[in-house]
Amino acid sequence: MSSLSNNTEVGAGGAPQAAPVVVPARKRRLRKPIRAYLEAHAFLGLLVLALVFFSVWPKTSAVFPTTANLQILFGSSTVAAIAALGSLIPLVCNEWDLSIGATAGLSSVFVAVALTNGTSPFLAIALGIGIGLAVGIVNAVLVTRLNVNAVITTLGMSIILAGIISLKTGGVTVAGSIPVAVTNFGTLSWFGIPRSVVALAVVAAIAYYVLDYTPYGRYLYALGSNRSAARLTGIRIKLVVGTTFVIAGALCGAAGVLQVARAGGANPHLADSILLPALAAAFLSAAAVRPGRYNVGGVLVSVYFLAVLNNGLNLAGAPEYVSNFVNGGALIVGVGVAARLGGRREA
């Protein structure tokens, strides 16, 4: 009579069954860090692959990898990146701000008009950031005091701001005698690095420190994870949520100022060009650097991934509407990935 192998068990009725395969605890411990590492760096890897692809693709290889194009690519993305950081702050506690593009556009228009009329650059900068703060305060009051849904509030605000921009500009670009010191900051470089990129790095460093190393940042993540539990710990939810809209407004006001410095004027359609990329980058941040958690590093990786795609496709002669497909698709993917990774993290 033959004996059963070591990998079989006797089931009901005496029938042999395969024994369950037991994965050693050490291998299980190794798999989790490896998977987490791959998830955290997959998006950065896609960014590198996109850079390499457009550098060797015959349609773009002559122009894309040049210093001039890369400076333009990284410099021109700073406005959307700062707006994305503004969107990130309320998003961390699961609030949406759809007025970020319109706020940046309104700030840029009033700053350009002020500079054209001879206002001191310092006062014009303060004006631009102040406009963003004012919009953020109104959003905060409507959301936290009148209990209007954040999506409805900020969407309505963006429509109102678009009307103000149209009234102020008549749909025409504001261009005039912008001081050279302002445009130099937006267009020139320090040691080959665009000055606007340096400004973005400073803003990103501050946002990173606030979110990761201050009690305020921990409050935001606590609200985003479980608002009911956060309330029980004594967090003043309405106050904290309100401040996120104020900070978002200030950052978008600063983005508008930077746009004037880069373009030497104000485009009344700025909101249309930065809203989708900024929102997409904010949501995609949950799939990069720290998967399942909205984060500053993920925002920067996502912004430049989208920028590389759009720049490369433009150089290849792709129709303008292709960028809409890229940005819109990225927004859908970002929301989906953020929901999936966030749910898995909480499980």
Description:
- Strand 1 (8-10) and strand 2 (16-18) form a beta hairpin.
- This protein is 72% helix and 4% strand.
- Helix 3 crosses helix 12 (270-284), helix 3 runs antiparallel to helix 13 (296-315) and helix 8 (195-213) crosses helix 9.
- The protein starts with 7 loop residues before the first strand and ends with a helix.
- The protein has one domain (43-340): ABC transporter involved in vitamin B12 uptake, BtuC, CATH 1.10.3470.
- With 347 residues, the chain is mainly alpha-helical.
- The strands form 3 sheets. The chain has a two-stranded antiparallel sheet. Strands 3-6 form a two-stranded antiparallel sheet. Strands 4-5 form a two-stranded antiparallel ribbon.
- It is globular.
Task: List key phrases describing it.
single chain; 347 residues; mainly alpha; ABC transporter involved in vitamin B12 uptake, BtuC; two-stranded antiparallel ribbon; two-stranded antiparallel sheet; 14 helices; 6 strands; 72% helix; globular
Task: Compose a concise summary of this entry.
The chain is mostly helical. It is 72% helix and 4% strand.
Topology:
Layout: E1 8-10, E2 16-18, H1 25-56, H2 67-76, H3 78-92, H4 100-116, H5 121-144, H6 150-169, E3 174-175, H7 180-187, E4 189-190, E5 193-194, H8 195-213, H9 215-225, H10 227-232, H11 237-263, E6 265-266, H12 270-284, H13 296-315, H14 321-346
Antiparallel strand pairs: 1-2, 3-6, 4-5
Helix pairs in contact: 1-13, 3-8, 3-9, 3-11, 3-12, 3-13, 4-5, 4-6, 4-11, 4-12, 5-6, 5-11, 7-11, 8-9, 12-13, 12-14, 13-14
Shape: globular
Low-confidence stretches: 1-12
Main pleated sheet? 2 strands, antiparallel
Structural class: mainly alpha
Strand content: under 5%
Beta-strand segment tally: 6
Q: Rg from C-alpha positions?
A: 24 Å
Q: Please bin the fraction of helical residues.
A: over 70%
CATH level-1 class:
Mainly Alpha
- Average pLDDT, to the nearest integer? 86
Number of domains: 1
Q: What's the CATH architecture name? A: Orthogonal Bundle
Terminal-residue CA separation: 49 Å
Oligomer: single chain
Number of helices: 14
